[in-house]
């Protein structure tokens, strides 16, 4: 049913003229906008990588149609699949999905009901850190903000459903940030805004580490690592800020950029 009068509690300027409920349309718009944000930041990779969101009250998740650039994604082009990977709603294209999106993201959505959104990218510095034996080092405030990091060993391109249980085990029951060794990074959140905020801090931490290691010639003994109690204090403080808004202010500040540039993601 087309709904023209849509009052959005998130103070976004939206008119729902789609077949979707207001609640699903809002999730679709937020996710499509975040695809545009990632493209604007230069963290996309042709037609690859995935950002997903669960449709509240269902066992369906949304992800990008396989063939669209991130800057082309719209609310109605997103594909809805169930937790077995079956397409429930193909969206406005006939492109289907990339199976790796289901293998990685479907595993997490099925096992962690606390997670509404997952975001996986291959940004260059984050891949470099994923290839670094010591992983992400606790050297920047950004690395403290995101807290504990989980690691998953590389098993090749993720197309085998058997890997899902190992991905779930690697992430663990509470962590929301995962380094996929030799591959990339993944961040999660109890909403799209939190997942984006975690991903942003994750990438920044990786960028800082790559620059810092280049400055010291790879000699980690030259790095200034704050005491653990200071790092833990920063993590707890950042978590208290996130608990108040789940990254919503940060997400909205970037939403205003992509909306001003091109608001076609709402369609």
Describe the structure.
- The protein has 267 residues and is an alpha+beta fold.
- The chain has one domain (22-259): L-fuculose-1-phosphate Aldolase.
- The chain is 41% helix and 13% strand.
- It is built from eight helices and eight strands, in the order αββββαβααβαββααα.
- It has an eight-stranded mixed β-sheet, with helices on both faces.
- Strand 1 (50-54) and strand 2 (60-63) form a beta hairpin.
- The radius of gyration is 18 Å and the shape is globular.
Task: Compose a concise summary of this entry.
The chain has about 270 residues and is of the alpha+beta class. The chain is about 40% helix and about 15% strand. The protein has an eight-stranded mixed β-sheet, sandwiched between helices.
Continuous helix count: 8
Shape: globular
- CATH superfamily caption: Class II aldolase/adducin N-terminal domain
Mean pLDDT: 90
How many domain regions? 1
Number of strands: 8
CATH class descriptor name: Alpha Beta
CATH architecture label name: 3-Layer(aba) Sandwich
Give the topology.
Elements: H1 22-41, E1 50-54, E2 60-63, E3 79-82, E4 87-89, H2 99-111, E5 117-121, H3 124-131, H4 141-145, E6 150-152, H5 164-171, E7 177-180, E8 184-189, H6 192-215, H7 228-245, H8 248-261
Parallel strand pairs: 6-7
Antiparallel strand pairs: 1-2, 1-5, 2-3, 3-4, 5-8, 7-8
